[in-house]
Amino acid sequence: MKYYKTLLITILILFIFNFTIHAVNYGGELKLRFQQLPIELNPIYAANETEQIIIRQIFDSLVELNDKGELTTHLAESWEVEEEGRLFTFKLREEVYFHPYQIAGEPVPLSARRVMAEDWKWSFEYLASPENKSPYAQLFSKVKGYDDYRQGESKEITGIRVLDNYQLQIELTESYAPFIYNLTKTAAAVMPKNAVLNKDNFSIIPIGTGAFKINDFSKAQVNLVKNNNYWKNNYQEEVLPYLEQIQINFPTKNEEKRNYQQYDIYQLNAESYRYFRDNEIHDDYQLQKIPQDIYYFLAYNYSSSKQFNSDSANIRNGIRSNLNKIDFNEVDSSNLMLPISNNDQESYLQKIYKSSQKNEVENYKLENNIKELNLISNDSKNSTLITDLIRSKLQTNKLTVNLKKYNWAEYLNLINDSFKAELFLMTYKYHNKYDFLADNFYSESELNYYSYNNQRVDNLIDYLKLVNSLENSDQAFQIIEEILINDNPFVFILQAAESRLFSDRVAGQDLFTNIYLKDNYELIYLK
């Protein structure tokens, strides 16, 4: 009897210990402090970073990008691509509801808040309407009937069709399979027609389907509360979100400086970063860099006056080898940039660049092969910081690096023309891997400033416009990646970043290191 009693106690202890390890805490209020004040929370207009973060908590899209930047289902249960990338058919989830709202002072019943295909058609046409003047209307420019709708010749976009309550079809004017990436944007969210048209304040009290719903919006604060009827909970065992509410605060005139301990996550500007870098931080807080989707890259110009002949690849790899030894933290006084080698969550761009570093030529002496390099950039603060550092690392008593800086207008005119400098600095906002390839490596692209020309890459990018299956497109992306690892113009890349103070009570902080998941607050909980 004593043995069985001891065994029972042991099992109970192990069960409780295991439950404690794997359990997450539900409830609580997460307090954030951001630098930018939101002005507009209607997704078809929202622009600044804070607005985008808030909108991602309130609204949902048909499809989304997962933690690796790959397309996956969201409010669409599945989709099919037909007619060589011209026709998209979406099967919608049936248990999705808009947040509670009222019309003429009366609550709209749950049954009337169910999201159906007609809601999607209306939302997309609302976004594209010329009367609304959304900066994101062009997301649907390739859809059949878009031009007629914009010009007032049709009352609808004929290429957006409701097949039944839970099937939506989108037809394009020509084959373009990557169109589906447009549907991951925050502007391409579903909204309830009656709430939008009957609420003068939809821009400050928006209604969506997301994990959180808005409670109030003031100059100093936005409060979000848990959506108790969140659609994901109809399709999975794990109940989301974990948090009961989120309080988002903004700078005020009377705000006390260094008041970070009032918040769980405190976003820093350059001045406050320097203060916290140089002064002691409370033991319960950590200073962290958060990667952004903007990159600074130093690139090689394939049409430069110095072609370097047969040694061109070695010289590019030699430059990479020299520059990748830089400890950028020594000079980045504002903590605004992050060497991409420090980020474990790789974008497609990062994978190509990091793999190409394997081609670096050890102990390659540039000055033994070339005597002069020309480097150009714009004269912004960050670009100046980067190019001054690059010049100091490359220049020797045998190798002269000529650096010229231009204002933005002059610089864009220069790089859009045929320029002769071997190296130049550019910024690029990364959206998805197709746009990255089509923008930078397609020979006819207006953004292909380095005159990169590879017929095989061109053919594969054209193929991606037609392909119907994700499996085939993944294979094409893999082949392009293999080509670019051995032949790409990037010699040095930095990723834009911001700095935040995190309280130790915030669990799931690893999410913030992933550019695809960093705004996914439904997965955050408090210890």
TrEMBL record:
SUPFAM superfamilies given in the database record: Periplasmic binding protein-like II
Keyword Hydrolase: no
Signal peptide as annotated in the record: none
Entry keyword set: Signal, Transport
Domain Solute-binding protein family stretches: 71-424
One annotated Gene Ontology cellular component of this protein: ATP-binding cassette (ABC) transporter complex
GO biological process, one term: peptide transport
InterPro entries associated with the record: Peptide/Ni-bd, SBP_5, SBP_5_dom
Family listed: Belongs to the bacterial solute-binding protein 5 family.
Name the record gives this protein: Peptide/nickel transport system substrate-binding protein
UniProt source species: Halanaerobium saccharolyticum
